[in-house]
Amino acid sequence: MRNKLFSILALFLSLNIFAQYDVDINKEKKISGKERREENQRKREELGGCKFIPFHEYSVGMKFYFPKDEFKLKYDSYFEDYYGVTQIKKNKFQKQKIGYKDLAGKVFEIVKIEERKPEYFEDTYVTLKQVDSTFTIEHKTRTSRAFHKSQWEKIEGDDYVYVLPDALYTGEIDSFKEKYLNKEFYSKFLVNGKRFKKVKIIEVGAGKENEPIRVIVVNENGDKEQIDFCTCGTNVSSVYLFSNSMNNFFTTENPKNNYKGKDENWELICERKIKIGFTEDELRFSWGNPNKINETTVSGKQHQQFVYSDQYVYVENGIVISFQSSK
Asked: What's the whole-model pTM score?
């Protein structure tokens, strides 16, 4: 017992000795991936006025809309891998093949969620009934909701978000419409060739998969444009949660308030254009942050190559001196 106490004391003292060398300015600032996910979720919920619901918390009564995807309708895509219908034919249960046309443009409501264990694994079955109809479909996840919950709690970021394929959560659309219809914003996307201008949301409806909200906006000149995005992100795949978020397309603050460049360059920036003579700040204002920056120093001058996908912009001492496309 005595030897064990000496060992513990020696270990404690050694840790204190080593700790004096553990210096890191970022040590107190580090946050976990889970904390970052929860903060992003909070911001999305605040923005959209709706609660993000992970799959393992889906409940009876939730409604989903299947958008009219013209491509899938044209080629009559079939959904037997995603949804099924069991019906009685000649006193036997048979599987009916579901086409996209059977679901497109219709609203379905969850009427039952249950776990079944037909073979080795417990599967989750979600039963949805078309609103104002007896037509019922069923989705099988091949894993239990307990498994989905454990993965959701274990994985640090937004990497694990299970969804009902091709379906849009109507609660997200309805919440946005109630909160933002007829409200004004500044657009970060082009409306008749210009952005960063004031627009008004005049219509709200269903978008497409992973972009459940579709809005039509009008600017002060009467030009209209439509854009699809998400807010709280319920039933939106994790791959798209960030890129499709509303704050990538709208802002309540006039972007020009943060612009410190020349007035004659502002309209070019609003058209997503650049020119030789732009400052680095003006370049970033117009095209955003580059994918990569390559740097060299020649004769005391700093040369930078800003890489934007297939576009290359050359900056010398903070000023754009040339640009080219790799196409």
From this structure: 0.82
**Tokens representing residue 73 in the block:** 């309708």
Residue 244 structural domain: 169-254
Instruction: Tell me, yes or no, whether 280 and 318 share the same domain.
Output: yes
Angle at 302 between CA 296 and CA 305, to 5 degrees: 55
Q: List, in sequence order, every beta strand (DSSP E) within the chain.
A: 63-65, 85-89, 92-96, 107-116, 123-130, 136-140, 168-169, 184-187, 198-208, 211-219, 224-229, 250-251, 292-298, 301-308, 311-316, 319-325
Please, which residues have CB within 8 angstroms of residue 142's CB and are 6 or more apart in sequence? Answer: 121, 123
Helices 263-270 + 280-287 axis angle, to 10: 30
- Same structural domain, 271 and 147: no
**Range picked from 92-101, 118-127, 214-223 for highest mean pLDDT:** 214-223
Q: Residue 4 has what pLDDT? A: 53
Using alpha carbons only, give the angle 30, 36, 37 rounded to the nearest 5 degrees: 155
CATH number where 285 lies: 3.30.1450.10
Integer Cα distance of 316 and 301 in angstroms = 7
Q: Vertex 258, ends 253 and 259: CA angle to 5°?
A: 125
User: Between 170 and 122, where is the model more confident?
Assistant: 170
The Cα-based distances of 155 to 33, 37, 44, 148, 151 in angstroms read: 8, 10, 19, 11, 6
93: confidence class by pLDDT, cuts 50, 70, 90: very low
Q: In this model, does residue 8 exceed pLDDT 90?
A: no
Assess if residue 127 is contained within a domain.
yes
Domain boundary residue among 232, 254, 276? 254
Q: If you average pLDDT over residues 194-219, what whole number do you get?
A: 97
- Using only the alpha carbons of the chain, give its radius of gyration: 27
Question: pLDDT tens-digit profile of 302-314?
Answer: 889 999 988 999 9
Which two structure tokens, joined as six digits, stand for 144?
Answer: 């239990």
pLDDT for the residue numbered 130: 95
